[in-house]
Amino acid sequence: MAYLLMFVTLLHLITLAMLLIATMEKSWWEWDGMENSDLWYNCRFDNFTGTWLCASSKESEWLQAVQVLMVLSVVFSSVSFLVFLGQLFTMSKGGLFYFTGLCQVFSGLTAFSAALIYTLHNEEILQDSRELTSGHFGYCYILAWVCVPLLLCSGVIYIHLRKKE
Protein backbone atom coordinates (compact mmCIF):
# COMPACT_ATOMS: atom_id res chain seq x y z
CA MET A 1 0.00 0.00 0.00
CA ALA A 2 2.90 2.35 0.69
CA TYR A 3 4.13 1.88 -2.87
CA LEU A 4 0.69 2.73 -4.26
CA LEU A 5 0.59 5.84 -2.11
CA MET A 6 4.03 6.94 -3.33
CA PHE A 7 3.08 6.12 -6.93
CA VAL A 8 -0.15 8.14 -6.86
CA THR A 9 1.59 11.05 -5.13
CA LEU A 10 4.38 11.06 -7.71
CA LEU A 11 1.85 10.75 -10.54
CA HIS A 12 -0.08 13.69 -9.11
CA LEU A 13 3.02 15.89 -8.89
CA ILE A 14 4.09 14.94 -12.43
CA THR A 15 0.69 15.73 -13.91
CA LEU A 16 0.54 19.01 -11.97
CA ALA A 17 3.94 20.02 -13.36
CA MET A 18 2.86 19.02 -16.87
CA LEU A 19 -0.34 21.07 -16.53
CA LEU A 20 1.63 24.12 -15.40
CA ILE A 21 4.03 23.76 -18.33
CA ALA A 22 1.19 23.28 -20.82
CA THR A 23 -0.61 26.34 -19.47
CA MET A 24 2.33 28.74 -19.15
CA GLU A 25 4.81 27.85 -21.92
CA LYS A 26 4.70 29.27 -25.42
CA SER A 27 4.19 26.42 -27.80
CA TRP A 28 0.60 25.42 -28.53
CA TRP A 29 1.07 26.12 -32.26
CA GLU A 30 4.38 26.42 -34.14
CA TRP A 31 5.48 27.65 -37.53
CA ASP A 32 8.97 26.62 -38.73
CA GLY A 33 10.51 27.00 -35.25
CA MET A 34 10.71 30.77 -35.77
CA GLU A 35 7.19 31.68 -34.72
CA ASN A 36 4.82 30.18 -32.20
CA SER A 37 1.58 30.86 -30.44
CA ASP A 38 0.34 29.88 -27.02
CA LEU A 39 -2.64 30.67 -24.83
CA TRP A 40 -1.33 34.11 -23.94
CA TYR A 41 1.12 35.37 -26.62
CA ASN A 42 2.13 35.15 -30.25
CA CYS A 43 5.92 35.16 -30.51
CA ARG A 44 8.43 35.53 -33.34
CA PHE A 45 12.16 34.95 -33.19
CA ASP A 46 14.17 38.00 -34.30
CA ASN A 47 17.39 36.84 -35.98
CA PHE A 48 18.94 40.31 -35.74
CA THR A 49 18.71 40.58 -31.95
CA GLY A 50 18.51 36.85 -31.20
CA THR A 51 15.47 37.29 -28.97
CA TRP A 52 11.81 36.36 -29.01
CA LEU A 53 9.42 39.25 -29.73
CA CYS A 54 6.01 38.56 -28.22
CA ALA A 55 2.67 40.31 -28.44
CA SER A 56 -0.56 39.44 -26.66
CA SER A 57 -2.80 37.03 -28.50
CA LYS A 58 -5.88 38.50 -30.07
CA GLU A 59 -8.76 37.68 -27.75
CA SER A 60 -11.51 35.45 -29.01
CA GLU A 61 -14.23 33.62 -27.14
CA TRP A 62 -12.66 30.24 -27.91
CA LEU A 63 -9.22 31.32 -26.72
CA GLN A 64 -10.69 32.67 -23.50
CA ALA A 65 -12.52 29.38 -22.98
CA VAL A 66 -9.28 27.42 -23.41
CA GLN A 67 -7.43 29.81 -21.07
CA VAL A 68 -10.08 29.53 -18.36
CA LEU A 69 -10.32 25.75 -18.63
CA MET A 70 -6.56 25.23 -18.43
CA VAL A 71 -6.23 27.54 -15.42
CA LEU A 72 -9.20 25.79 -13.81
CA SER A 73 -7.53 22.44 -14.44
CA VAL A 74 -4.38 23.62 -12.65
CA VAL A 75 -6.49 24.95 -9.77
CA PHE A 76 -8.45 21.69 -9.44
CA SER A 77 -5.26 19.64 -9.46
CA SER A 78 -3.56 21.92 -6.92
CA VAL A 79 -6.58 21.87 -4.59
CA SER A 80 -6.74 18.11 -5.01
CA PHE A 81 -3.13 17.73 -3.90
CA LEU A 82 -3.54 20.01 -0.90
CA VAL A 83 -6.72 18.21 0.16
CA PHE A 84 -4.94 14.87 -0.25
CA LEU A 85 -2.15 16.00 2.06
CA GLY A 86 -4.70 17.21 4.59
CA GLN A 87 -6.70 13.99 4.40
CA LEU A 88 -3.55 11.92 4.69
CA PHE A 89 -2.84 13.31 8.15
CA THR A 90 -6.37 13.90 9.49
CA MET A 91 -8.61 11.19 8.03
CA SER A 92 -9.44 8.13 10.10
CA LYS A 93 -8.25 4.65 9.19
CA GLY A 94 -10.21 3.07 6.35
CA GLY A 95 -11.36 6.40 4.91
CA LEU A 96 -11.52 6.96 1.16
CA PHE A 97 -10.09 9.93 -0.71
CA TYR A 98 -13.33 10.79 -2.55
CA PHE A 99 -12.94 14.56 -2.65
CA THR A 100 -9.33 14.31 -3.80
CA GLY A 101 -10.31 11.88 -6.55
CA LEU A 102 -13.25 13.99 -7.72
CA CYS A 103 -11.08 17.13 -7.90
CA GLN A 104 -8.53 15.21 -9.94
CA VAL A 105 -11.21 13.86 -12.29
CA PHE A 106 -12.61 17.40 -12.72
CA SER A 107 -9.09 18.58 -13.50
CA GLY A 108 -8.81 15.91 -16.21
CA LEU A 109 -12.20 16.83 -17.67
CA THR A 110 -11.38 20.54 -17.81
CA ALA A 111 -8.00 19.82 -19.47
CA PHE A 112 -9.83 17.55 -21.92
CA SER A 113 -12.35 20.28 -22.71
CA ALA A 114 -9.60 22.87 -23.23
CA ALA A 115 -7.56 20.65 -25.54
CA LEU A 116 -10.65 19.62 -27.47
CA ILE A 117 -11.78 23.24 -27.96
CA TYR A 118 -8.28 24.19 -29.15
CA THR A 119 -8.28 21.23 -31.54
CA LEU A 120 -11.67 22.00 -33.05
CA HIS A 121 -11.41 25.81 -33.12
CA ASN A 122 -7.74 26.54 -33.76
CA GLU A 123 -8.63 28.42 -36.95
CA GLU A 124 -10.74 30.90 -34.98
CA ILE A 125 -8.19 31.10 -32.16
CA LEU A 126 -5.27 31.78 -34.54
CA GLN A 127 -7.27 33.92 -36.96
CA ASP A 128 -4.75 36.75 -37.46
CA SER A 129 -1.68 34.53 -37.50
CA ARG A 130 0.11 33.01 -40.46
CA GLU A 131 -1.31 30.26 -42.65
CA LEU A 132 -2.21 27.27 -40.48
CA THR A 133 -1.22 24.69 -43.09
CA SER A 134 2.44 25.63 -42.69
CA GLY A 135 2.32 25.09 -38.91
CA HIS A 136 1.67 22.28 -36.48
CA PHE A 137 0.64 21.71 -32.89
CA GLY A 138 3.37 22.36 -30.35
CA TYR A 139 4.60 20.41 -27.36
CA CYS A 140 2.39 22.25 -24.83
CA TYR A 141 -0.69 21.15 -26.74
CA ILE A 142 0.59 17.57 -26.71
CA LEU A 143 1.34 17.84 -22.96
CA ALA A 144 -2.25 18.95 -22.36
CA TRP A 145 -3.53 15.85 -24.14
CA VAL A 146 -1.10 13.59 -22.28
CA CYS A 147 -2.31 15.03 -18.97
CA VAL A 148 -5.93 14.06 -19.62
CA PRO A 149 -5.67 10.26 -19.20
CA LEU A 150 -3.08 10.64 -16.42
CA LEU A 151 -5.38 12.95 -14.45
CA LEU A 152 -8.39 10.70 -14.96
CA CYS A 153 -6.43 7.59 -13.94
CA SER A 154 -5.02 9.23 -10.83
CA GLY A 155 -8.51 10.44 -9.93
CA VAL A 156 -9.88 6.91 -10.17
CA ILE A 157 -6.94 5.60 -8.11
CA TYR A 158 -7.62 8.23 -5.43
CA ILE A 159 -11.30 7.26 -5.29
CA HIS A 160 -10.40 3.60 -4.71
CA LEU A 161 -7.48 4.31 -2.36
CA ARG A 162 -8.14 3.62 1.33
CA LYS A 163 -6.15 5.06 4.19
CA LYS A 164 -4.40 2.44 6.27
CA GLU A 165 -2.31 2.83 9.41
Task: Describe the structure in brief.
This protein has five helices and five strands.
Give the topology.
Blueprint: H1 2-24, E1 29-31, E2 35-37, E3 41-46, E4 51-56, H2 61-90, H3 98-120, H4 122-125, E5 135-137, H5 139-160
Antiparallel strand pairs: 1-2, 1-5, 2-3, 3-4
Walk me through the structure:
The chain is an alpha+beta fold. It has five helices and five strands, in the order αββββαααβα. It has helices spanning 2-24, 61-90, 98-120, 122-125, 139-160, and strands spanning 29-31, 35-37, 41-46, 51-56, 135-137. A five-stranded antiparallel sheet has the order 4-3-2-1-5. Helix 1 packs antiparallel against helix 5 and helix 2 (61-90) runs antiparallel to helix 3. The longest helix has 30 residues, at 61-90.
